[in-house]
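Per your request, structure below.
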């Protein structure tokens, strides 16, 4: 019988006898038997948009509000985010709804600022191997979600998690968000097999992002369900009150009614694999 193996130099991000990592954020536990749903717009655009999105996420049964205040974009001409003003808007949404916040941090010098607002620090795919940033969030007091790089192997991904863990922050979440392959119809190729692979290799919780994983709105729901069936501990889903007006990633953002329907449809699948929403 074949066995999955990675470099023996990776010591903290692999199974080491300490048991499954469970990360408590507000009333939600990431890891264990709860399926954590993180949802919201790709970018924080204005106060009304985020508050409306937060109410929709809360009303549908979502657990954590996502939204980017700092946005790494492919081109410099694209919307780059509102910075601290965006963090303040997310904070207002949390105050109204009680939803914890996950948002991206892009540079070591921004960690202190973002940490003062966020409940979970997100490291985006483009920064997976930003080792100075990984070391800095490893010293943070907030959980860190590490997205897989767009061309990264699973071993490289775990190696980057090792950087965070080695600095003393043991609350690390891994996020499979699709990798770059020769396929061009979808934005990325969502590697659903990465979920059970991580489960066999590591005790860290793993989340699936079907929005970035496909880049196509109609594919988000089926791939979200596939991620649950594969054993994911959570989902990260882009939902915008008005996707056609979104400043970023509108084509992959669910409409509110689509997100609400997905939340209903996911419950029996989660139950079938021993999870609850």
């Amino acid at each position: 019988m074949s066995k999955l193996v990675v470099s023996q130099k990776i010591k903290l991000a692999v199974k080491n006898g300490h048991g499954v990592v469970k990360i408590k954020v507000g009333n939600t536990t990431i890891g264990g038997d709860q399926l954590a749903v993180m949802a919201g717009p790709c970018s924080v655009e204005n106060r009304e948009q985020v508050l409306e999105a937060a109410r929709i996420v809360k009303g549908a049964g979502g657990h954590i509000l996502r939204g980017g205040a700092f946005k790494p974009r492919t081109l410099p001409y694209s919307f780059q985010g509102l910075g601290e003003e965006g963090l303040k808007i997310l904070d207002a949404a949390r105050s109204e709804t009680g939803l914890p916040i996950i948002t991206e941090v892009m540079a070591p010098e921004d960690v202190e600022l973002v940490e003062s607002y966020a409940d979970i620090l997100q490291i985006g795919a483009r920064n997976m191997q930003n080792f100075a940033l990984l070391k800095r969030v490893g010293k943070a007091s907030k959980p860190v979600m590490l997205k897989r790089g767009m061309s990264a192997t699973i071993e490289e991904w775990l190696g980057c998690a090792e950087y965070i863990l080695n600095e003393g922050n043991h609350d690390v979440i891994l996020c499979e968000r699709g990798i770059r392959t020769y396929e061009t119809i979808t934005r990325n190729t969502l590697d659903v097999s990465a979920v059970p692979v991580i489960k066999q290799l590591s005790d860290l919780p793993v989340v699936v992002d079907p929005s970035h994983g496909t880049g196509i709105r109609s594919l988000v729901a089926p791939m979200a369900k596939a991620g649950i069936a594969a054993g994911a501990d959570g989902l990260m889903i882009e939902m915008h009150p008005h996707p056609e007006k979104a400043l970023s990633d509108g084509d992959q953002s669910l409409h509110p009614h689509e997100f609400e329907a997905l939340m209903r449809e996911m419950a029996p699948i989660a139950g079938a694999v021993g999870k609850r929403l």
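The chain has a mean pLDDT of 96.

Regards,
D.
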